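Database export, one record per block. Field names are fixed; values are copied verbatim from the stored entry.
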Amino acid sequence: MADGQDVKERSKGIGARLMRKEDDRYLNGKGRYVADIRMPGMLELAFLRSPLAHARIISQAKPDQTDSRVFFGRDLDGVSGIRAVSGLPGFRPSTQPILADEKVRHVGEPIAACLADSRAKAEDLAEKIDIVFDELPAVHDMTRARDKDSPLLHEDWEENSFLESNADINFEAAIAEADVIIKRSFKTARQCMAPIEGRGLVATWDRNLELLTLYSATQMPHIVRTGLADCLNMDHGQIRVVAPDVGGGFGYKGILLAEEVCACYLAMKLDRPIRWVEDRREHLIAGANCREHSYEITGYAKADGELLAVDCTAIVDSGAYSSYPFSACLEAAQVASILPGPYVMKGFRCKTWSVATNKPPILPFRGVARTGVCFAMEVLLDGIARELNITPEAIRARNLVQPEQMPFTNITNKFFDSGDYPEALKRAVTAIDLDGIRKEQKGQTGRTRIGVGLSIFCEQGAHGTSVYHGWGIPMVPGFEQATARLTPDGGLELRVGVHSHGQSLETTLAQIANTEIGIDPEKIKLVHGDTAYTPYSTGTWGSRCIVMAGGAVGSACELLGERIRKIAGHLMQADPADIILENGMATVGSSTISIEEVARTWYLKPQLLPDDVDPRGLDVVAGYKTTKDTGTFSYACHAVKVEVDMDLGHIRLLDYVIVEDAGTMINPMVVDGQVYGGAAQGIGTALFEEMCFDASGQPLASTLADYHLPLASDLPIIRIEHMETPSPLSRFGQKGIGESGAIGPPAAIANAVNDALSFIGAEVAEVPMTPERVLSAIAEAEFSNPTEGDVA
């Protein structure tokens, strides 16, 4: 084979920018989503949802002759509410009813299920239900939720708090050396995840098999099955969960839904398929949302910029319930452990509360807790730098963990596996042309100003048993498993328990298999999203798939390769250890035999097999964990140039640079896609997205006309520069990268805006940075410093 052809064939494995296998069906309209599923006799499901945030239900009445089409909570015989418990000391569990029949705790909570042969008719039924409420005061302000006079969401609780978390590490000793103390208050807004496909399900019951099948747009098929088994009091073997194509998840599709439990019960009771497809209004008012944080944070530093300690009090609005398998304490508890980020410090103190309010429960949105933590920490650092009259890049370089310290255990016991954070910072500063921007700023006049901002952070991904078992939750990840099966025609079938909803797993896992045993990715099929056919997995979350499932696929293919070599060696009368598997062939010296022929021999010509052949054949299951399962740490530095209109409060993004390190990139094009998509979401967090509630707990955005998602015209050209520092913990050196792009933008953009307005001393400390908030910060600064604000 010519060298050029050899390079072309080998470029389909790890490191190749291989086109996505999935895109052929997606771009040609051949994807199969929940809404595409049609079954004979199927009924459509609509829910009557609470119009109030907090109320007791006094009475419920169905329309006449609708007992077989309208169901209240009392009709769901033997069904248990959803309980997501945690073993963390002091955690207060909640019970989320499948259909509320005593009390409602947020707008949009389902009260009644209505069935008809069309969604419109089911909604008509819902409108005819007679229900009487006794409205109660709503808890809408997370900072007041724990007040003694606040009404309790859950009457058996002492206060509206799921959990209090504390960390105190050498704090008092560290601050004794401080030359400067900077205090700031920060807030981040509640957001809705907005996958292009909402949630949806089809539930069916097979009387003969006594098998309940749920087709669901979910990230965690196996976890949903476990939750259903608990709520419906059924054996796991009686439940099959299938996730077809899923149009985006971002954490929104990572829980068990009350709607799923209800639909499954009705499918069994009526022996008919039941379908529910969420509309956008349901998504916005009733779906779980996230990221509403409040920080009171203080930084302590020496005159030379050394960061000595950080002290923080944080509140996270967790909504009305803790969603299954867990959610309520996920963000606040992590704030207390990840706030220091990639910085070295001598002392740290943090107290957080996961508070309960009359809002939908929160979920782990892309970049769980990290986006808010990065915003608080990075904007604080810029404040310290201004106070000390040093540059933002200098204070970061002074305090970042250094490459020679790797692997490094930080102050909260996070184990950083590898990386060169100062190099990422240096490259970002160069790429954004920071020196050029500073020169440009010196000539500025008028009411339009430019600024530059930085943010740097780390993303812990693929963390496993040693991290999660202490939480005492019903989904502790263990060994991720994969099946590799050679088919009779020499193709390869991979089965994994994780699920893809945009991460390109059908491509990247095929590339890993190609590297291990040389089969063309076009001949590799990925089976996933079906509990009947795939190994148990806690699913897709926490940037774990390419590390854990990728490692499992690599391990399974390695074992399969040994069996292929054994048969090929016998057929070619060669030592199996000398055989190379590549380009679909088994080669030793000048002799070759196709992997297809090896497969054909096992399945169709067993008389040709060696006497000592492995009787388990060409079907292998392997499990995988990283060598230390505290997680891989990818990281990035974001740098942005902005223009701020001081009269309109408008922010325009002029340039955006991301320097990221995902370790070994399985497919650099896929990494780019993950980072671009995440950055778009992060820009939405920074500038646009906000789910507001009024004092009665009513959501103020019920359509996408009210909830502003970023448009293509809102986004700048984003330039990505890759670094590749392999992780010593993972099989191929890869690190999780799925959440990284969403973490950095709010902090970088806020720092750029504050840099542009620093000449008047204005600081924006809340996201999204709407024109109103920018103008408010400018007005406050100009009122406090009138001469500073007198610009031409």
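Remark 1: Residues 203 and 214 are 4 Å apart (CA to CA).
Remark 2: Confidence is low (pLDDT under 50) at residues 1-9.
End of record.
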